[in-house]
UniProtKB/TrEMBL annotation, chain A:
Xref: PROSITE patterns: ABC_TM1
PANTHER family noted in UniProt: ABC TRANSPORTER PERMEASE PROTEIN, INNER MEMBRANE ABC TRANSPORTER PERMEASE PROTEIN YCJO
Domain of life assignment: Bacteria
Species per Swiss-Prot/TrEMBL record: Microbispora siamensis
Compartments in which it is found: Cell membrane
Keywords: Cell membrane, Membrane, Transmembrane, Transmembrane helix, Transport
Spans through the membrane: 21-48, 77-102, 114-134, 162-185, 216-236, 268-288
Membrane topology: Multi-pass membrane protein
Domain ABC transmembrane type-1: 77-289
Main location: membrane
Record protein name field: Sugar ABC transporter, permease protein
Sequence similarity: Belongs to the binding-protein-dependent transport system permease family.
TrEMBL record, chain B:
Gene that this polypeptide is encoded by: uspC
Subcellular location: Cell envelope
Protein name: Sugar ABC transporter substrate-binding lipoprotein UspC
SUPFAM superfamilies reported in the protein's UniProt record: Periplasmic binding protein-like II
Similarity remark: Belongs to the bacterial solute-binding protein 1 family.
Residues spanning the signal sequence: 1-26
PANTHER family: ARABINOSE-BINDING PROTEIN-RELATED, SN-GLYCEROL-3-PHOSPHATE-BINDING PERIPLASMIC PROTEIN UGPB
CDD domains hit by this protein: PBP2_TMBP_like (cd13585)
Major subcellular location class: other
């Protein structure tokens, strides 16, 4: 809101603001009750020793001290970071390439676009179960296909080297189409005059992509990478259905550890501490992204 | 300016009214417990088995008929959510009045004071399966109505036996050195695509068409049975410490692993390890001839199988046969608002009238002795399957799952460690040492 130059900041201005708050109240209440409050509660719980069915006891920084020495928890952080690195870049690049392909004016393109979004609509649990069959080392479709070209496929989900990539592959498969939609929308928002002008000046298609398209896609890129990173850091359901954190802890991501600590060990205090760790990691990564894109993004294409 | 307020006021008033109504009904509900005659009391009965729900609807109808002032609501929760929800409800003080209990979860709940002492029911415990009674006794007091028992037996594919021209031996036997009729029979039933058996020249273990036996990482139906029939011990005493890294136990574990990796009569662990293991599917598709399973699995396996399913007793080990028996019970919430009525229901659930319904419907072997024939008759008449070996086994040596605290937390770790063992990445000795250490650390 800009300041009123004539100094008429009386009624209209203030009552307008009042109404503004009124209109956002429902969603603000939602955010407060279902987002801010739980975060605060979890923060509070992280200072307690609370095994379910016993009474919570204040423990100060005990849980954080335990976390500092908990090699398994830091292993989980490492696995999660690996997972994010496997997932997000691949998913983003693939989605971008798909969007460029599907941005052509070809007959029936609408159907292709819809087709690529279908995986995103599947329930992760059902999808995980289906992929379990595909990954079966002996009768599975994937190794069956590999054997046709003379390759003996690995024991996907029981080999510590392959389990995490396998789970990442499923998530890439599921989310690429959905991300493609955003890039497609972003591409269509770029005025064609800019491309025409660049072409007239002698820019090659590759140059036009890197100098014109990509910079102007920054708002989309910002949104897609932020949501993907957060989503990847929070990965849980596919792991739950496909590997249970195994083999040898190779897919023991932090969210899965939080789940086991809370609902298997019933140790809510320490689970809250682990949740705070994940919260801080996501916060730092997201803030870094905001800074990175903040300097490089223009929202005005006219 | 007024309009929005009016429009907001209405739903608000509506919400307030609803809340008030809810309070009134809630008061009515809890008030009636303390006396006013005409109003019926509503009890909640929670279970996790969709199939058994149908049986319990009949049981509850009979109970309500005998007790017109009590209504029972049956609540079904899927097993995966059951314990999480029950724990949360117990924390909030709002657990159901009567609910199902499982041996491995019992220690957690009884030690935290969630369960009511059932001594006032004055049940004659000698009339019930003693393993079930034992599993729900804590400090000499009974905390669960003995409900039913399930036992591990050997399901087998009768068609595969016929095709291979193999007779199921009178008794299957095993020993750590690989002698005995189990391995011999399993070898004959294992065949690669060319029809060669393990040990034949040219046998290709990567192209096996049918496996003779299913040995895999499943504690209840697999390795715990090997351990107990080799003289190994899972736990030093109820509520004690894990001990299955002794020599006899490790030998038994080795045998389970050898069936897979040395003798090649079982599918590789890459296809059977939890959580993605598909052993049940492999059996119902006719790829596995012998499959140890709890009798509770029958309703899930028999309709799927396109062959005749047979039932045999589990193999005998060096110290005889010892199979897992798993008893369920019904427990009463210690803080139930209707304790008197809940106890009444518990008494009824322990009665012959209630337990006979569940037996004759083919749902379970009831914990009350003398009713098992109804269960046998059901399976004989509807599916033509003789399930009496399950009953025979129960008369011999049986063992319960380890009864101690912290099992929910230990279970995922145990499964991961033993996955490695079945894959052959660590030895049974290493696996048992690791698992025992983790298990004893999880005891509270």
């Amino acid at each position: 809101m800009t300041a009123d130059p004539a100094g008429r900041t009386g009624r209209t201005g203030r009552s307008g603001a009042w109404y503004g708050y009124l209109f956002v109240t429902p969603s603000l209440l939602g955010v407060a009750a279902f987002l801010l409050l739980p975060v605060l509660i979890v923060l509070g719980l992280s200072f307690f020793d609370w095994k379910l069915l016993s009474d919570p006891m204040f423990a100060g920084l005990e849980n954080y001290r335990r976390l500092a020495d908990d090699g398994a928890a830091w292993h989980s952080v490492w696995v999660t970071v690996l997972y994010v690195l496997l997932c997000v870049p691949l998913q983003t690049v693939l989605a971008m390439i798909l969007a460029l392909l599907l941005n052509q004016r070809v007959r029936g393109m609408r159907y292709y676009r819809a087709l690529f979004v279908v995986p995103w609509m599947a329930t992760p649990i059902v999808m995980g179960l289906t992929w379990n069959w595909i990954f079966d080392p002996r009768g599975g479709a994937l190794n069956g296909a590999l054997s046709l070209i003379g390759v003996t496929g690995p024991d996907w989900l029981s080999d510590p080297a392959w389990a995490l990539p396998a789970v990442a592959l499923v998530n890439v498969w599921q989310h690429t189409g959905y991300n493609m939609l955003f890039f497609l929308a972003g591409l269509q928002g770029i005025p064609s005059e800019l491309h025409d002008a660049a072409a007239t000046d002698g820019a090659t298609p590759v140059q036009r992509f890197f100098r014109v398209t990509l910079p102007l896609l920054n708002p989309t890129m910002f949104f897609v990478t932020v949501t993907n990173l957060i989503g990847a850091f929070q990965i849980f359901d596919t792991i739950f259905v496909m590997t249970d954190g195994g083999p040898s802890g190779s897919t023991d991501v932090i969210n899965f550890r939080i789940y086991n600590t809370a609902f298997k060990d019933f140790d809510f205090g320490y689970a809250s501490t682990l949740s705070m760790l994940l919260f801080v990691i996501i916060l730092v990564v997201t803030l870094a992204q905001v800074r990175f894109f903040g300097k490089r993004t223009t929202y005005d294409l006219s | 300016m007024q309009a929005p307020r009016v429009r907001w006021a209405k739903p608000l008033a509506g919400v307030a009214l609803l809340a008030a109504a809810a309070t009134v009904t809630a008061c009515g509900g809890s008030g009636s417990g303390s006396g006013s005659p005409g109003d019926p009391v509503t009890l909640t009965y929670r279970l996790w088995d969709e199939q058994q729900k149908a049986g319990y609807e009949k049981v509850m109808a009979a109970f309500e008929k005998a007790n017109p002032d009590i209504d029972v609501t049956i609540e079904v929760l899927p097993y995966d959510q059951y314990w999480t929800k029950l724990t949360a409800d117990a924390v909030a003080g709002s657990a159901p009045d009567v609910f199902w209990m499982q041996t491995s979860q019992f220690p957690e709940f009884v030690t935290k004071g969630v369960l009511a002492d059932l001594t006032p029911l004055k049940l004659d415990t000698s009339k019930y399966n003693n393993k079930v009674v034992e599993a729900y006794t804590y400090n000499g007091k009974l905390y669960g109505v003995p409900k039913d028992w399930g036992i591990v037996g050997l399901l087998y594919n009768v068609d595969l036996f016929k095709k291979a021209g193999v007779e199921m031996p009178e008794t299957l036997t095993w020993a750590p050195d690989g002698s005995g009729t189990l391995l011999e029979t399993a070898r004959k039933l294992t065949a690669d695509e060319e029809g060669r058996h393990p040990g034949d020249p040219g046998f290709d273990k990567d192209k096996v068409k049918t496996y003779g036996f299913a040995s895999w990482n499943h504690y209840q139906t697999q390795w715990m049975n090997w351990v107990n029939s080799n003289g190994g011990r899972l736990l030093d005493k109820p509520f004690g410490r894990y001990t299955f890294n002794d020599e006899a136990s490790v030998q038994a574990l080795q045998f389970g692993v050898d069936l897979v990796n040395k003798y090649d009569v079982s599918p590789p662990a890459t296809r059977t390890n939890p959580p993605t293991g598909k052993v049940t599917d492999m059996f119902t598709r006719g790829e596995v001839a012998m499959f140890p399973a709890n009798n509770a699995l029958l309703p899930f396996v028999v309709p799927e199988a396109k062959f005749k399913v047979g039932v045999a007793p589990m193999p005998q080990g060096p110290t005889g046969r010892s199979v897992n028996i798993n008893g369920l019970s019904e427990t009463v919430y210690a803080k139930s608002k209707h304790e008197k009525e809940a106890m009444k229901l518990a008494t009824f659930l322990a009665s012959e009238q209630a337990q006979k319904v569940m037996a004759d419907g083919g749902y379970v072997f009831p914990a009350l002795n003398g009713l098992a024939q109804g269960y046998l008759d059901y399976w004989q008449k509807t599916e033509g399957i003789d399930v009496s070996p399950f009953l025979e086994e129960s008369k011999g040596d049986t063992f319960s799952l380890p009864v101690t605290t912290g099992f929910t937390g230990f279970e995922p770790k145990l499964n991961q460690i033993f996955n490695e063992m079945y894959l052959g990445k660590i030895t049974p000795k290493q696996a048992a040492d690791q698992a025992v250490a983790e298990g004893n650390a999880s005891i509270k």
